Amino acid sequence: MAAKLRLRPPEPGTAGLYLAVARGAFRRYSTYRAATLAGAVTNTAFGFILASTFLALWRARPGLGGYDTTQAVTYIWVSQALLVTVAVWGGGFQDDVQERFRSGDIAVDLYRPVDFQGWWLASDLGRAGFHLLSRGALPVLAGALAFDIRLPTSVTVWAVFLLSVLLAVVVSFGLRFLVALTGFWLHDSEGVRAVMLVVAMFFSGMLLPITLFPGALGELAAVLPWSALVQIPTDLFLEHRTGGAVLGALGFQLGWALALLAAGRGLQLLATRKVVVQGG
Amino acid sequence: MGIIEVHNVSRTFTVRTRAGRLRREKREVRAVDGLDFTVEEGECVGYIGPNGAGKSTTIKMLTGILVPTGGRLRVASVDPARERVGLARRIGVVFGQRTTLWWDLPLRDSYELARRIYRIPDARYRANLERCVELLELGALLDTPVRQLSLGQRMRGDLAAALLHDPQVLYLDEPTIGLDVVSKSRVRAFLREVNTLQRTTVLLTTHDLTDIEQLCRRVMVIDHGRVVYDGGLEGLHAAGESERTLVVDLAEVCAPIEVPGARVVRTDGPRQWLAIPARASAAPVLAAVAARYPLVDLSVREPAIEDVIARMYSSSEAHPKGATV
């Protein structure tokens, strides 16, 4: 019987559905204009504080971590742009799913002939698209006016960067999906999420570029999935990685994205089986 | 063959309770026990019972999101737990306290999404949407974000969303909860239309018995995981041993009336209340009273369906049928 509970992978012809879900999520976030503006202002304010700090640090220790001073300041602005877009702190679809666990609406989701993971991935990509334009582009524009920052001049670098951001969102989704699904066992995934927040802050390169981490810690940070969230897209933006290293970086992100999506699918199967067999 | 077939279905849950500091005791709770019923295509059946009777468990098993522990279950000829996703395209589910609508977006967007989820052909989608919009008076609301809708409006919106794909079976869980009188009657009128014209089979769970009285010819009462009554609404009175009340006003204060076929249940000065079985005629009792007592006025009160069911619940409370093992 267990085999019959198998979750089918998304069928062809459902692309339209997932596109509609992504579009809906984009529009949904865009309805809260005041909140978006307030968020962008916050990102800009933190950008100013951190960029000034980095400026002072790099003046004292030029070339730290292999970045020149302009690159270091740009690093701050790009990472601020990615913070909410990639949902380093969690959130996005995760808030929705947690709320659905709390209210019990999660049961309704199982009545619908849609793939749970596919639905929320589409929704989160739509959200990320909106956040990239609002919480991402606005702070970088502000930063570019006030600081000497380095924007890529080649179309290829921009394209590579955008692809990398897309993969970063998928990796982040994969991690958040696993955390959200613990709700099936723990009823509330808030605790797990709090732990993940700290880990993500540290290992994503959000706090400091992980190239600054010493020895083994740096090597560990470089292979963990969190480096795919901020460190890699930012390095690609700064052209800190070039040539073959670009493909390596994208491949690293893609690898983690696929692995985490597969793990999420497995966990979803277990969760569905638990609900269906043991009762919610 | 019925569209819903339930044969000897049971469902047990394992509940762990603390017994001492570290020790935990496992206990088996039977939510549904030997459930048996068939629903024919096009029927509208009221499914009622007190809280915790096993109603939700039944609905969950019928939609396939819960596997029965024992017994056989078929909806539209398929085993729901095995073909949950396939079945989901052929049934509609509405929970009064949940919503499938997209909270921050206009109602119309949720319907567009339903069209894609259920892969509804364009022509059918347009026709169904038009019909739902007209019957549920949703025209002015289509471009309003769901979060701005009142509870009654949202409920109507949810009903439409559940019916756009022409489901063969519609499960309704308290569809009128929290609605005002006008909204309730609008929802009921719509459901009647769907049931009679579309021939959609409806299984309706509710605590509002007016829903049942106005919509269902058949009612199933479930208690402690078993069907304790299955039949017409009228039959409930007989099954529940319900009584009519004869309110008699006498010219003076008298001793409690003693006539065959009736008993006094209350007295208040010259007024007395007599109970007579619902199926018996009131005429002989009336004649006997009029012949022997100074009768001034009288009225007959029909038994309320609420009272009948309340009595049914409490009587099965007195003889629990092994709800816990």
Automatic annotation (TrEMBL), chain A:
It holds the Pfam family ABC2_membrane_6. The keyword Amino-acid biosynthesis does not apply. The keyword Membrane applies. Keywords: Membrane, Transmembrane, Transmembrane helix. The chain crosses the membrane at residues 37-60, 72-93, 132-151, 157-182, 194-217, 245-264. InterPro entries: ABC-2_transporter-like. Coiled coil: none annotated. This is ABC-2 type transport system permease protein. It comes from Kitasatospora paracochleata.
UniProtKB/TrEMBL annotation, chain B:
It is found in: Cell membrane. SMART domains: AAA (SM00382). Keywords: Antibiotic resistance, ATP-binding, Nucleotide-binding, Transport. It is a peripheral membrane protein. Gene3D superfamilies: P-loop containing nucleotide triphosphate hydrolases. InterPro entries: AAA+_ATPase, ABC_transporter-like_ATP-bd, ABC_transporter_ATP-binding, P-loop_NTPase. It holds the Pfam family ABC_tran. The keyword Secreted does not apply. Residues 4-249 form the ABC transporter domain. Its main location: membrane. GO terms for molecular function: ATP binding. This is ABC-2 type transport system ATP-binding protein.
